[in-house]
Amino acid sequence: MTVRLGEHVRIMAGTEGPPGRCVALEGRIGHFVTCSIYDRRGTLCREFNPEHDDGSPNEMCDRARRAHGLPPLERQEKLSDR
Ligand code: SF4
Question: pLDDT tens digits for 2-54?
Fold first, then answer.
């Protein structure tokens, strides 16, 4: 379910390059998807967020969406913005 990336890192199979589709991703991209191993997902997945702490977009997320023909996520209004 994983592949080696360098000497010390393993990544989910299917995410090696664009457009990429993780082997654990179920569903139809752009409609409804879910992670089939969500409770057991690795550190890279747990640390990846679609936006940074300051609310700015994560370009890697937008790039992954673009690779599948999807627009960037619309920025969510944060409670602190109100
Ligand atoms: S969160 Fe789940 S579906 Fe997404 S890359 Fe990680 S293992 Fe794959």
Answer: 999 999 989 999 999 888 899 999 999 999 999 999 999 999 899 999 999 89
- Cβ-in-10-Å burial (0-12, 13-18, 19+) of 24 comes to buried
- Cα separation, 71 vs 64, in Å, equals 10
Task: Give me ligand 1 centre to Cα 59, in Å.
Answer: 18
Containing H/E element for 3? Answer: strand 2-5
Say which residue the tokens 């592949």 belong to: 3
Distance 45 CA to ligand 1 centre (A): 6
Q: Is the pTM of this model over 0.90?
A: no
